[in-house]
Amino acid sequence: MIALLDTSARADSPEQTQRRLDLIALSQRGAFKGVTPRLLPSLVHPSRLGTPLAQEVMAMAERVGAAAFLRQQRAIMGRPDSRPDLPGIAVPALVACGAADLLTPPHLHDEMAALIPGARRFNFEGCGHLPAMEAPRAVAEALAQ
To answer: Three-state SS for 98?
Structure first.
């Protein structure tokens, strides 16, 4: 089985790349602690801002650190368009995301699911980009099915 959660098969758009470059520049100026507060509204559902979960996301980013953040952003900027490869997936596939995911919105998941033969598509209601943290039981149930 393959599970594609809160991701995209597309390469970054020029606008997405520019946002990443801006965050990289901020981090490189020694302001990494300012990156996560800027990203947090894009990471979790609005109902979870100001909650212990939001604090945990901030703490997780701190533990991961600036160097890993920079590697992640550069890797994503270099990601190729994988849509042509999706029809070749020959295992059961779950394509799922937070219904309120702003970074990789549901329409991108609809696109991937339509390209993968027999893919199962699921939205996690009340979740943003991090449903595994926002609704871990629902994610576990979707994976178990």
So the answer is: strand
